[in-house]
């Protein structure tokens, strides 16, 4: 492995970590292996104040990666269910979650595909997504950037509120609605276009804007005519990632664990 | 002498067709599964199930056709994210649903517990939760200067709450020894009547209440009956007494693959006495040795 070699998963982890930069002292929730390792990376590097859990109920001093553990982590607090709602309604949380569908407004769905009364596919149910969405910052991870995930119209069942004026009785979303970033296998986006239009802020190495647009069901904005390349993880970041994820769960997220720079393959 | 001891079947005997039944626990934690299995075996029908944080409780009662309406926020087996029997039933349009956010469900129980008709919340705003045909959500405006408009989350008031705890004395003084009690206390307070299964019924002295005060879920005046049901949460966990049984949950998940697979599961694990159930799952020794799961 040369010094510059990194996997797509590691590139995504580094991009996930960035969502928690300059967040202050908040609960950082990363759902799924890469967002979770990303939260750990942020905590061990530029955002030491964020608070992460063991994935069950404890806040831990050090980030806990996915999979088997060699020793019991040091617990620094308890995140029991009641307290999680108190924390999230206070706004002191930034969650990075993985919905099934998202639309141009940032509305997201994990409930059903098809009609809610008799769905084609029943999934989890809304879980805490509605409350999360209007209470604290949220970011998203999609392992497969395609038109089934980035849908043309609205998502089939809006679990997370978004920037859709038609959904609000006064045309305005609650103040807590704060959608930050979307990280995918192709790029990083934010909601910084006109009227919160979703905007590509960096392309993963070797990916073009056209490829991203072709795989998205709605028009995307660009941060600049020349879109930057998603920064590769540094050698120090790769070391920290390996420390957080000794089980190498990150290698199982994308099929065949591709290189971060597809041109290097 | 106050004695609220009952059997699991006595508790199920208190239920009737069309009732609204609230289930405690969370996904794979402290689900009152001995009671769920007994309901699945019974002739009960047309139940409205309030299982906000659902797992096999929803799945098993869905697969046995007991549910007329489901009030929930999710159905999941956590390590197996999708509840397969719930999915099958939903995709067949088998029952009506009212889908809520987890926090809204908590808020509805809290309103019920406080005997209020509703509690205001921002949760639900901007989503399809408040646009469901099954319930006409109303809004309420702050009477103070801010004038903000909120969703009026209605009280959730089950006829009966069913929970699983660790210890009780015969008067219904409960200990829930879990690190996280979830919202079982609010569920009990919201419900008309509440019944608990417990791992063990002990003497009041053995509860060691002075030491265990933080684990005393709710005052006994809220508990109508307690039944001793060792391993009564299996295959969900009743930690620290025992952990969830991932191997059994996998068998349960696979039983959704076909009607034949379900019939086989049902014959082996549901249409049997609790004693035979315990033998079928390898007995108390095996369950007590289940490993702590990794999250």
UniProtKB/TrEMBL annotation, chain A:
Protein name: Ketoacid CoA transferase
UniProtKB/TrEMBL annotation, chain B:
Matches recorded under InterPro entries: CoA_trans_fam_I, NagB/RpiA_transferase-like
The protein's name in its UniProt record: CoA-transferase
Molecular function per GO: CoA-transferase activity
PANTHER family in UniProt: ACETATE COA-TRANSFERASE YDIF, CHOLESTEROL RING-CLEAVING HYDROLASE IPDB SUBUNIT
Highest taxon of the lineage: Bacteria
Source organism per UniProt: Sphingobium quisquiliarum P25
SUPFAM superfamilies: NagB/RpiA/CoA transferase-like
């Amino acid at each position: 492995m040369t010094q510059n070699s990194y996997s797509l998963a590691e590139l995504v982890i580094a991009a996930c970590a960035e969502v928690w930069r300059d967040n202050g002292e908040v609960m950082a929730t990363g759902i799924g292996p890469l967002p979770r390792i990303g939260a750990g990376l942020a905590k061990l590097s530029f955002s030491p104040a964020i608070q992460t859990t063991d994935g069950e109920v404890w806040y831990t001093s050090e980030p806990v990666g996915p999979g088997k553990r060699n020793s019991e982590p040091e617990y620094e607090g308890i995140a029991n269910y009641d307290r999680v709602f108190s924390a999230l309604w206070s706004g002191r949380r930034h969650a990075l979650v993985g919905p099934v569908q998202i639309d141009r407004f940032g509305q997201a769905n994990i409930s059903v595909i098809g009609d809610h009364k008799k769905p084609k596919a029943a999934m989890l149910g809304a879980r805490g997504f509605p409350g999360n969405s209007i209470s604290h910052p949220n970011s998203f991870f999609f392992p497969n950037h395609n038109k089934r995930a980035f849908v043309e119209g609205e998502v089939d069942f809006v679990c997370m509120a978004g920037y859709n004026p038609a959904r609000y009785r006064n045309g305005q979303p609650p103040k807590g609605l704060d959608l930050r970033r979307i990280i995918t296998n192709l790029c990083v986006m934010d909601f910084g276009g006109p009227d919160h239009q979703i905007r590509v802020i960096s392309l993963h190495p070797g990916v073009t804007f056209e490829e991203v647009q072709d795989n998205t069901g709605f028009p995307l904005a660009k941060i600049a005519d020349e879109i930057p390349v998603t920064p590769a993880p540094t050698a120090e970041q790769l070391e920290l990632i390996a420390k957080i994820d000794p089980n190498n769960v990150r290698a199982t997220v994308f099929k065949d664990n591709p290189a971060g720079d597809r041109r290097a393959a | 002498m106050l004695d609220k001891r009952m059997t699991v079947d006595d508790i199920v005997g208190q239920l009737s067709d069309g009732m609204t039944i609230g289930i405690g626990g969370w996904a794979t934690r402290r689900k009152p599964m001995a009671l769920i299995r007994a309901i699945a075996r019974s002739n009960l029908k047309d139940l409205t199930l309030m299982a906000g944080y659902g797992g096999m409780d929803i799945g098993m009662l869905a697969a046995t056709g007991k549910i007329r309406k489901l009030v929930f926020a999710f159905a999941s087996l956590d390590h197996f994210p999708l509840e397969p029997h719930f999915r099958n039933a939903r995709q067949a349009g088998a029952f009506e649903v009212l889908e809520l956010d987890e926090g809204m469900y908590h808020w509805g129980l809290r309103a019920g517990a406080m005997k209020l008709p509703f509690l205001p919340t921002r949760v639900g705003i901007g989503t399809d939760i408040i646009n469901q045909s099954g319930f006409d959500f109303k809004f309420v405006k702050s009477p103070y200067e801010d004038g903000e408009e909120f969703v009026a989350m209605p009280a959730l008031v089950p006829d009966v709450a069913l929970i699983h705890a660790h210890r009780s004395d015969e008067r219904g003084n409960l200990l829930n020894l879990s690190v996280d009690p979830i919202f079982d206390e609010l569920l009990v307070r919201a419900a008309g009547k509440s019944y608990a299964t417990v791992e063990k019924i002990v003497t009041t002295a053995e509860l060691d209440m002075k030491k265990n005060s933080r684990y005393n879920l709710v005052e006994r005046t809220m508990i109508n009956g307690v039944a001793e049901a060792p391993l009564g949460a299996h295959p969900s966990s009743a930690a620290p007494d025992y952990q969830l049984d991932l191997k059994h949950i996998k068998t349960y998940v696979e039983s959704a693959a076909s009607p034949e697979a379900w019939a086989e599961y049902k014959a082996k694990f549901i249409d049997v006495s609790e004693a035979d159930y315990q033998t079928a799952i390898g007995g108390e020794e095996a369950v007590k040795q289940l490993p702590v799961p990794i999250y």
